[in-house]
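Pasting as-is:
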Amino acid sequence: MAVLAESGSNPDVDLLYDINGLAKDAPHWFDRIVEFVGEYGLLIAMVLLVVCCWWSVRRRADEDSAQSVAALVWTPLAAAVAVLVNVPIRGFVERPRPFVDHTGIDVLVSGKTDYSFVSDHATITMAMGVALFVANRRFGLLGIGLALVEGFCRVYMGVHYPTDVIGGFALGTAVALLLSPLAMALLTPVLKAVESSRWGAWLVRSGDARRLARDAVIPGARTEASGTTEERDLAA
């Protein structure tokens, strides 16, 4: 990876200087905002997005509520697994931070003494965004958008090369997608057991959703959906 750290015609380094150079021309207060957002803010926003999605899912009376909540539980677990996978990758590649090998880098956050490839922040946010997309497309697209902003912030802050961010996106996506079937196979039965319990049912469905589900299975009950189906059959 030493070749990637050399300047000249290297597009990775050129793009690093272009994006990080924006920090030199920006007001000091704006740099401080990007520093907080890139270091903590987007991670917090991603967690809040998962919580909002969970709140939305549990209010529905769908039969697959347990499966949907299981997918949401996989979201933070995917990020944790991706970071663990990144540990040996960092140790194998041993790529220094950009400001170690290059002069003129405006570093917005201090204390970064570990290796650069791949970016943990990019890995975490993209893993959560992709896993969230598996659970809910609308929230997942927002999560992926937050991950892309996170990647830009890490380069803007001068603590990662663009390829560090791209590598993090690829790692997070691979872990979230490839391990999703196994995770769902393990987590769905657990969430179904929680749904059927007296103490944990609220984690999967709200009280209103549980009442709607009970009403829907009353013998002889004619629901709007069944009526629509019968009308369609008669029209056929």
